[in-house]
Amino acid sequence: MTKFIMKDQFQNKTAIIILAAGNSSRLGRPKQLLEYKDSTLLKNTISEALKVPNSLTIVVMGANHNEVEKELNTTEINICFNPEWETGMSSSVIKGLNELLLLNPDCDECIFAVCDQPFVTNLVFENLIFEYYKTEKGIIASAYSETLGNPVLFHKKYFNELLELSGQEGAKKIIKKYLEDTVSVPFVKGNIDIDTEEDYNKLISE
Question: What is the CATH number of domain 12-205?
C-alpha cells in the first residue's frame, strides 16, 4: 500500500528506485533478507541511498513482500508493491517509475538500483548524479566487468521508453540503444551480486 505524501516535498530531488521484487529462485530464499554488515542486503542498499543528499528512495516489492517489509523502516522510504513481479524485471522498472511520477510528476531524473549489489555505497549514487550535472548526458551508467549496468541514472526524456519495457527486458536495453547519450562511471566491485548460495558464502567469507 502506497503512503500518501505531498508532492511538493520532492521537488528538485533525484529519485533512487531500488528494485527488490524478485523471488531469488536460484538462491532458494529471499536475497533481500540475507544478513550483511549487521543488517541485510536490502537494508544496506536502502541505508546507502538514504545518505544521498536531496534524494528520495522508492523500494519496489514483489515476492515475499510481507516478510521483507516487516524488516524495513517505512517512515524513511516509499514502498510500492508490484503484483506482476513474476513477469520479469521490466514490470518492477515500470512500477517504480510510475510510483515516482505519482509522487513527483516533475522529476527530471532517477536512478535505478538493485538490492543485491553488496558494495554499492552512497558515493556510487552521488558519482552518477555528479556526472549527470557535469556532462548533461541523458544516461549515466555504472561500469564494471566491461559492461554498463546498475545503478544507472536516466533523464526524464527516457521515462516513456522505460515505461514501454516488457518481460525480462531491463534498463540495459535503453542504454544500448542510446550509447551516444551515455556516460559511464566506474563502480569498483559492481560486478559482484548475489544470485546463489555460493555467491553469498563467498561474500561473507571475505
Answer: 3.90.550.10
Distance CA 115, CA 120 (A): 9
Instruction: Find all residues with CB under 8 Å of 181, minimum gap 6, and list them.
Output: 137, 138, 139
The residue type at 134: K
Q: Which three cell numbers stand for residue 20?
A: 527488490
Strand pairing of 39-40 and 78-81?
unpaired
Helix (H) or strand (E) holding 197: helix 197-205
Beta bridge partners of 110: 15, 154
Residue given cell 505524501 in the structure block: 5
What three-state secondary structure class fits 16? strand
pLDDT for 182-195, tens place per residue? 999 999 999 998 88
φ, ψ at 112 (rounded to 5°): -100, 135
Contacts (Cβ under 8 Å, ≥6 apart) of 6: none
Grid cell listed for 101: 511520477
* DSSP H helices in the chain: 41-50, 65-69, 89-103, 122-135, 159-163, 172-177, 197-205
Q: Helix or strand or coil: residue 55?
A: strand
Joined grid coordinates for residue 15: 529519485
Q: What is the pLDDT of residues 89-127, one digit of tens each?
A: 899 999 999 999 999 998 999 999 999 999 999 999 999
Instruction: Report, in angstroms and rounded to the nearest whole number, the Rg of the chain calculated over CA atoms.
Output: 16
Instruction: Give me the residue spans of the domains in the chain.
Output: 12-205
CA separation for the pair 150, 111 (Å, rounded): 9
What whole-number distance in Å separates Cα of residue 187 and Cα of residue 198?
22
